[in-house]
Amino acid sequence: MGLFSKDIKTMDDLFLHGLKDIYYAENQITKALPKMIDKATNRDLTKGLKDHLDETKNQIARLDQVFQKLGEEPKGVQCPAIDGLIKEGDEIAGEVADKEVLDAAIVGAAQSVEHYEIARYGTLIAWAEALGRDDVVRLLTTNLNEEKAADKKLSTVAVRKGVNRKAAS
Amino acid sequence: MGLFSKDIKTMDDLFLHGLKDIYYAENQITKALPKMIDKATNRDLTKGLKDHLDETKNQIARLDQVFQKLGEEPKGVQCPAIDGLIKEGDEIAGEVADKEVLDAAIVGAAQSVEHYEIARYGTLIAWAEALGRDDVVRLLTTNLNEEKAADKKLSTVAVRKGVNRKAAS
What's the DSSP call for residue B98? Predict the structure, then answer.
């Protein structure tokens, strides 16, 4: 995808670009999550992140199916947004001295990644619907719903399972 | 905030860092929105983005109040996440040849920024509550609710006001 050429001419092109973007993002997330799991201390948090790593692999398999239905090769395109989100999470984790405060920081970083994916899947679903590609909407909706559930679980870990309370005490 | 020093020792430090992060983000957004407004064609979209630019300025004023209540100087800290999100929006906008497809791309980029802010304000509110800083929760909640409303308005512009339909036709 050339930065100075106008390669996106149609909504189909835009949709395919968006798909490559989230494909790249999901693959980057499978690399970032194990590092977050290593740094986390709270058991509910590490379990939640591990579960989401498994989910993410299934989400990539669903995206493979979407590419297949479009007659395209599964392929990512480097996107600065997810790189920035992951970099920000790494930086903040590197700056936190206390383990319990670090857990709270990890939840925050993970939720910002979840919200990026929620935004992207929401947009892709709306675009697929406009293009009449109902055959891929179901797959994308399954991924969207998993991201929303993962975000809620992280809120539960932070608020009800005591991550924030312990960090603040 | 040194990258290789462990400057964040307490939850108060983490909260202040998060506040500086969103302060930087909101200020970057006030610079990015006018460029998006210039590129957009659909009237509902340009109006929505202009309204949100005004809202963003009010949100910064509320963050100034939060800093004041904490006895801190309002200050941003450069954060790769919002830089990446804005860069991604710029790049995609530069690659789209068709004006109506560009409108659809702009909505998608704007919604990814909204979701970043929704994530950040949600985290900051949970941290403020854990710290017993109810005096700043109200201000942050007002900002959060505005971001959620802005995200919904963008969905309406994309789906009901015909941005996606025109882009796909």
Answer: S
